[in-house]
Specification:
The complex is a heterodimer of chains A (114) and B (107). Chain A is an all-beta fold and 114 residues long. Chain A is built from no helices and eleven strands. In chain A, strands 2, 4, 5, 6, 9, 10 and 11 form a seven-stranded mixed beta sheet that branches. Chain A is globular. By secondary structure, chain B is mainly β. In chain B, strands 2, 4, 5, 9, 10 and 11 form a six-stranded mixed beta sheet that branches. In chain B, strand 7 and strand 8 form a beta hairpin. Chain B is globular, with a radius of gyration of 13 Å. Chain B starts with a strand and ends with a strand. The chains are: A mainly beta (114), B mainly beta (107).
Chain lengths: 114, 107
């Protein structure tokens, strides 16, 4: 199984809602990532979980909070988002955060904030 | 100047043509990825290279570490190859992304 799955595929939410994005992999990978991608731009790294340790891109606002319940799952909790947060959210995993291991990407969640 | 530059930004070709997309980078890297993204969709990793050349089906990727340059070639291109192709380099355990090359193959 070389797949990273993400749910939901599409999400529409209001600015006062609380929602979560889910990401799962069963490849035994020890590093998982959240990226945000705006239209026609490359993905921007938001968070990395590597061996249960969280690394944060400090430009990411606190209305995004990651959670790693176990080594196969990575959630992204969303609260009080703004319309400019509308984007494609991509999850990825790799064997570890080291140099030579490729990242596997999920299909993404298309988020629209009204 | 961006650390990872791709060319061309946009490429339109006829079905069957040989396609080349280029990637130049200015930082030290431990590996380079070529990835594909269809409109509105997720990202598929095509290749990860640290030296030499790799081939998968009609796709070939090469890298010249000394010149800090990589190329992605598509032979016998097909309309289903239409997508954005992204070069990303691994630098200090992070990916630095190119802006992507939008490829359209016309039947």
């Amino acid at each position: 199984d070389t797949e990273v799955t993400q749910t939901p595929k599409h999400l529409v939410m209001g600015m006062t809602n609380k929602k979560s994005l889910k990401c799962e992999q069963h490849m035994g990978h020890r590093a998982m990532y959240w990226y945000k991608q705006k239209a026609k731009k490359p993905p921007e790294l938001m968070f990395v979980y590597s061996y249960e340790k969280l690394s944060i891109n400090e430009s990411v606002p606190s209305r995004f909070s990651p959670e790693c319940p176990n080594s196969s799952l990575l959630n992204l909790h969303l609260h009080a988002l703004q319309p400019e947060d509308s984007a494609l959210y991509l999850c990825a995993s790799s064997q570890d955060q080291g140099r030579l291991h490729g990242q596997y990407f999920g299909p993404g969640t298309r988020l629209t904030v009204l | 100047k961006n650390e990872v530059e791709q060319s061309p930004q946009n490429l339109t070709a006829q079905e069957g043509e040989f396609i080349t997309i280029n990637c130049s980078y200015s930082v030290g890297i431990s590996a380079l990825h070529w990835l594909q993204q269809h409109p509105g969709g997720g990202i598929v990793s095509l290749f990860m290279l640290s030296s030499g050349k790799k081939k998968h089906g009609r796709l070939i990727a090469t890298i010249n570490i000394q010149e800090k340059h990589s190329s992605l070639h598509i032979t016998a291109s097909h309309p289903r190859d239409s997508a954005v192709y992204i070069c990303a380099v691994v630098n200090n355990y992070q990916l630095i992304w190119g802006a992507g090359t939008k490829l359209i193959i016309k039947p």
